[in-house]
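Re: beginner question about structure tokens

> Can someone show what the tokenized structure looks like for a real chain? I only ever see the sequence side.

Sure, here's an example I had lying around. Input first:
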Amino acid sequence: MRLKKVISGVMAVAMAATFAASAFAATAGEGTPGEPNKPGTGGSTGGNTSGIVLPEDATSGQIAGSLADALKKDPTNYENATRLVNTLNEDKKVFVDANITEAMLLALRAQGKAYNYTINNVGVSILSTKDLADKLSIKEVSYSATGATFEANYAGGAQSALGTYVTISVPYNLDGSWSWVSDNGQSGAVIVTNTGKTATLGFFAPHFTKYTLTKGTTTPPTSGSGSVIKATGADMNTIMMGIVGTALVAGAGIAFVSVKKRALSK
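And the corresponding structure tokens:
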């Protein structure tokens, strides 16, 4: 009789753990989904964004890294793209690394518009929102084998909700790693592409100001994207199974001890 009570208690604990874990997963996934061409309500710290569940204490860099990973899987997601841009502009210490740069390039290709400019015989290609791509005023563009400068703004001082991907054409090959810093304190990676006799310098500009590109890698600030936190439905299932398994193992141990005590007492 006592053994039956122990087993019943173990099963009750396991069921309670299952329900608690399921409730936690459901709560973590709640949120208002974004509408087409309209940011969602997730904010820039923690919470849910189009299926991405992050802890409330996630850093800006971790949020940016997770959003970049999500955009690579679905570059048409406007909510994730705008939230990534907002995260970068709200915390200027987040280093715009190659992962973020490539993610926003894919997002702008999927959601934006390309436009080509020629300034002082320098070719510049722009990827931006459809309403702003052809409204850019380039104030300065120059390059050398070890550096480049780019400064521009949109008509009326507008800023692109999706940021801007800039590609500068150079009439010779380039070597080494490159990076950029902006006048407003942001920094990031430059994608160098050699095509044989020419090269391009590509970078993602979250907010238009003056950008200085240099040969050599900029040391990312402490809040750079670095480690990425991922919490998905699969992760929650693993957690739930672990809780239930632990409860069952513990219960089995209690049952074993109870049976052994009964045997010794006879």
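Each token stands for a local structural state, so reading them left to right follows the chain. Confidence is low (pLDDT under 50) at residues 16-48, 222-241.
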